Amino acid sequence: MNRICIVEDEESIGELLKMNLEMEDFEVHLFNHGGRAMEEFDQLISSDLLILDVMLPEKSGLEICEAVRQKSQVPILILSAKGSTSDRIQGLKLGANDYLAKPFDLEELLLRVNNLLPKQENGGNPILKIGKREVNLDTFDVSEGDKKVKTLSKREVELLEFFSEKEGQVVSRDEILDRIWGTDSFTTSRTIDNYILSFRKLFEVDPKDPKYFHSIRSVGYKFTP
Question: What are the strands, taking DSSP E only, across 152-224?
Answer without folding.
Answer: 170-172, 213-216, 220-223
